[in-house]
């Protein structure tokens, strides 16, 4: 690791001001950023920690019934406190290991948008709203490709609002070394239809499987899951081929539908 300045503001306003400095970078739980810095793949001059901002922490229920989670809330806190959305709590309880869950944050995960992370599929599958210090962004507009989001430079995720579905479930085929999703599928059934979001499979990052959404909106049963999506554009690496990942998308979607409650 190299030398850098460390700032720990107590409010969102102070954090925004600190991020206007030259080569300043926001720091959530640091589960991705710090290893990246050690490998010299990133070299911010100043880290602006968001972990001490109380207005970005905690879980509550909004007036519209949505589950509202502060951007600095850890995975462990989501697992313990998101009981109003059982599928989301269960998903958070299986992210990484205890060390990761007690340091990593929902805002940090969504800001990083790793193509194999779990939270992007939950946010997209739930039709969540990403709230920042300046605006609200629908999940459908937020995710813009591998590691790419709609966030502007210096913009901070302060809250994520999840509409609570009638039924939902998340299924993850774990890559055992990293505990990221080789493929993960989040299925959520709402009164106006079903949403299916897939992580870990596509070269473009998290995506909605529209064919499955249409089929399951008509018949919410595992038998209604269509044939596997096209393997074109799927990730291929030493852990699995494009066709293998496409097959997993179908299998995990059916499992998620069968397990949804």
Structure summary:
Helix 3 (75-81) packs antiparallel against helix 4 (86-92). The protein has helices at residues 12-18, 33-38, 75-81, 86-92, 98-103, 106-112, 119-126, 139-142, 210-218, 242-259, and strands spanning 5-7, 24-27, 46-49, 59-61, 67-70, 129-132, 136-138, 157-162, 167-174, 181-190, 193-199, 207-208.
Features:
30% helix, five-stranded antiparallel sheet, 12 strands, alpha+beta, four-stranded antiparallel sheet
Count of strand segments: 12
Helix and strand pattern = EHEHEEEHHHHHEEHEEEEEHH
Biggest sheet overview: 5 strands, antiparallel
Structural class: alpha+beta
Q: What is the end-to-end distance?
A: 46 Å
Q: Nearest-angstrom radius of gyration? A: 18 Å
User: Into which percent range does the helicity of residues fall?
Assistant: 25-40%
Indicate the mean pLDDT. Answer: 96
Low-confidence stretches: none
Tally of alpha and pi helices: 10
Strand arrangement, major sheet: 4-5-8-6-7
Principal-axis shape: globular
Strand content: 15-25%
Written description of the protein model:
The structure is a single chain. This protein is of the alpha+beta class. 30% of the residues lie in helices and 22% in strands. It contains ten helices and twelve strands. The protein has helices spanning 12-18, 33-38, 75-81, 86-92, 98-103, 106-112, 119-126, 139-142, 210-218, 242-259, and strands at residues 5-7, 24-27, 46-49, 59-61, 67-70, 129-132, 136-138, 157-162, 167-174, 181-190, 193-199, 207-208. The strands form three sheets. A five-stranded antiparallel sheet has the order 4-5-8-6-7. A four-stranded antiparallel sheet has the order 9-10-11-12, with helices on both faces. Strand 11 (193-199) and strand 12 (207-208) form a beta hairpin. Helix 3 packs antiparallel against helix 4. The longest helix has 18 residues, at 242-259. The chain is globular and about 55 Å long. The model has no long low-confidence stretch (mean pLDDT 96).
């Amino acid at each position: 690791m190299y030398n850098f300045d460390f700032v720990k503001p107590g409010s969102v306003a102070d954090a925004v001001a600190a991020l206007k400095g030259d080569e300043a970078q926001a720091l959530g739980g640091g589960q991705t950023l710090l290893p990246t810095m050690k490998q010299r793949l990133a070299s911010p001059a100043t880290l602006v920690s968001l972990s001490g901002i109380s207005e970005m922490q905690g879980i509550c229920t909004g007036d519209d019934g949505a589950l509202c989670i502060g951007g600095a809330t850890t995975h462990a806190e989501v697992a313990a406190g998101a009981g109003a959305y059982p599928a989301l709590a269960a998903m958070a309880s299986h992210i990484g290991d205890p060390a990761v869950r007690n340091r990593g944050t929902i805002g940090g995960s969504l800001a990083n948008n790793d193509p194999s992370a779990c939270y992007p599929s939950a946010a997209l599958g739930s039709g969540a709203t990403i709230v920042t210090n300046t605006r609200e962004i629908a999940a459908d507009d937020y995710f813009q490709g591998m590691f790419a989001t709609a966030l502007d430079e210096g913009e901070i995720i302060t809250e994520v609002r999840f509409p609570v579905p009638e039924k939902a479930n998340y299924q993850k085929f774990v890559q055992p070394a990293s505990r990221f999703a080789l493929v993960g599928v989040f299925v959520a059934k709402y009164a106006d239809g079903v949403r299916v979001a897939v992580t870990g499979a596509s070269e473009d990052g998290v995506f909605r499987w529209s064919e499955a959404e249409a089929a399951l909106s008509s018949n919410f049963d595992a038998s209604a899951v269509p044939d596997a999506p096209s393997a074109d554009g799927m990730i291929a690496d030493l852990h699995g081929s494009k066709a293998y990942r496409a097959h997993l998308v179908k299998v995990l979607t059916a499992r998620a539908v069968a397990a949804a409650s």
